[in-house]
Design goal:
Elements (H helix, E strand, L loop, with lengths): L2 H19 L4 H17 L3 H12 L3 H16 L15
């Protein structure tokens, strides 16, 4: 069983049940667990986004790292989950 499958099939339902039993607001619970679910389905997290972006930018590695960081900072301030960020296209 892959890590994503484990999270989706076992851990998220357990977290949902546990947060519900602790009285966590359903809207908050569903929003945060939904982000985790979407990351598993998309196969994207912060690290994979960074690696994919640097690879797609290609060329000079230092320049690609600088551009990836610029994009990361820009996206970070948008306060949107990383799996929703625009993916770089290969150059």
């Amino acid at each position: 069983m892959s890590a994503a499958e484990l999270v989706l099939r076992r851990l998220l339902p357990m977290a949902h049940e546990g947060l519900s039993s602790w009285g966590v607001d359903p809207e908050v619970r569903d929003r945060l667990l939904g982000i985790i679910e979407a990351r598993c389905v998309a196969g994207t997290n912060g690290a994979s986004w960074q690696v994919d972006t640097v690879r797609a930018l290609g060329g000079d590695r230092i320049a690609a790292l600088h551009e990836m960081l610029r994009r990361y900072l820009e996206n970070m301030h948008g306060n949107e989950p990383v799996h929703t960020w625009e993916r770089a296209t290969p150059s």
